[in-house]
Every structure is written in C-alpha cells, then in structure tokens.
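note to self — DONT lose this again. spent like an hour looking for the file last time. sequence + predicted structure for the chain T wanted, 335 res
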Amino acid sequence: MGSAASLLAAFKAYSLSRKIAIVLGVYMLVLKDAPNYKPRQYGEPLDQHTYKLYMILIEHEFPNLVLVSTEFALFKTYSIPTISKLLRNTGEFRRNGVKRVEDTTLLLQEYAYYPHKPERGPVAINRVNDIHGHYKISNDDFLYTLAQFMIQPVEWIKLYGYRPLEKHEEEAIFMLYKVMGEKMNIRDIPDTLEEVEKWAKDYEKKCQVYAESNAHVGEYTVKVVTDLIPSFLHPAVRALMYTLIPQGVRVALDYPEPNPLLSLIMGGLLRSSGWFIRLFMLPRFVPLNRLKKGPDSNGRYRPTYSPFVNIYGKDGYKIEELGPTFGKSKTANAE
C-alpha cells in the first residue's frame, strides 16, 4: 500500500509533459495485445472459417478501407473499353449514378455479409446473374471485375491499414470472391491470389486502353462524389481523386497527371491515418455493419448509412428489386 502511495506521489510530482508521455507509453504497451492490433487466430482450417475471417475484416478490422476499396475496384474496371461501353450503353449511370453505384455495392454486401442466409446472399447472387443475363459479357471481363474485388481490398489495406494482412486473411478475401465467381458461372478462376494478380496485370497490358466510353462512365461516377459537396470544391476534390488513381487507369480515362506534391501529401495523410488508428484508437468492440437490420413487415431492408446518399434509408429495398427494372422473375433462392 505504501509503495503504491509513493508511486502516486512521485507521479504527481512529474511535469505535465512527463505525465502525458508515461500515460501514452502505458496505453500503447497495453493496446499492442488488444484484439484490433493482433490478428485473431483460429486453430481450425481456413476453409471452415473463410466467412468468419472475412466478417472480422469488414466489421471490426478494416470496415472503411474494405468499403472504399470495393468502390475503387468498380471504378478501375471502367478502364477496360469492353466493360465501359456496356455500362455506357445501359444508360444506368447517366440516369441515376448514385442508385447504380449503391445497388451494385448492396448486392455485393448482401452476399458478403450473408452468404449462408437463403433469403439474402443467394438471392443477391441470383439477382446479379439475372441482370447480367440480359447482356453479352465475355468471361474475361467477368473475371477481371471479380479479380479487382479480390485485389483492391488487399492493396488498400497494405498501403493504408493500421497493420498488414496476415496470409490467411488475404486468402479469406480471395476465397469469398472465388466462391462468388463460381456461383456466377465465371470460368477459369485462378487458384491463388497471386495467380489472380498476374492474370489481371496481363489482361490490363492487353486491354487497358483509352476509349471515349471509359471517360464517359468515369465522369458520371466522379459526379456521384462531387454532387455531395459545394461546386467550388469540385476542382480540389477531383485533384485529390487523381492522386489515388494508378497511371494505367488515368491514361485509359484520359485523366491528367496528378500534382506530385499533392500525391505525396494525400498518400501521407492516408498512411498516417493507419498509424493513428494503430497507436491511439481502441479496438472496435461493436461491429460496423450497415446491413445488420433485418427486414421490416413488408420484407424491405434499410441500410443504416451509405458512403454517398442513403437512398434506401426511408423506404428500404428488396434484394430482388436492386439494379435495373427488367427481369426480376428469375431471382429466386439457390444454393
């Protein structure tokens, strides 16, 4: 008891700066073994826990990075002319870009969050298949789009996360989308993430070139973001967005080279956010899941928030109604 009192007295005698340094040191020492700062371990094979691992990543570890990287994965596909021409011809971006982006994200998340709930994940996959069935899409374009959903979350977390992913976590992301691709009848999906990355790079060398349709679809997607902010900020936001776009994509969409200093600042800010989370943020104890609410009495789901405009916050949605208005009859449960 006496030793504790003497320690407390000694602590009170320290200067304010020294007190802060001691408190921060103890805080960081304690947090280094907290759940968010040490990858969770499972003693069972990965194939039994793919979805559990993925849910930890998107609900606890990196929810915002996974969401943003998924949106960026969609954006990157617009650098392939065969993909962008189809998207332009549908007119979905021109009519309502926010709805098109939100519907695509919701369908992906319905599957990712609830792959084993027959009223959610399987319905979302069948809705995706039903929509795609109305268009002539090559297997390679399907595979390239799927590859970006596998690759971009890993890359963004590696660049901007508070810690790198463990190998089994990368495999969880890969396997979730591999299974999704198989349910979409995509052929020739590589067996590893490394093989997917190599295939995607080879496909970009062959097919990632400028086309007017690339710029057309890209512009409507950028407007989804810029329409949320005052017009006088649009040039600054565009300049910041250009710093995040790889050179091949910028060339294919005819975007200007970003300011080198701005690129350095933007990259530094994003990386420092990861360090800030690692050193000063408590682990996330409450999962961040915008689709956690069940259906209402009319069978409609309401996201708790949206990265853009929560267009379904009031009236909700039915999974089989997401996307274009045609061909809903085929959307049924299937395992």
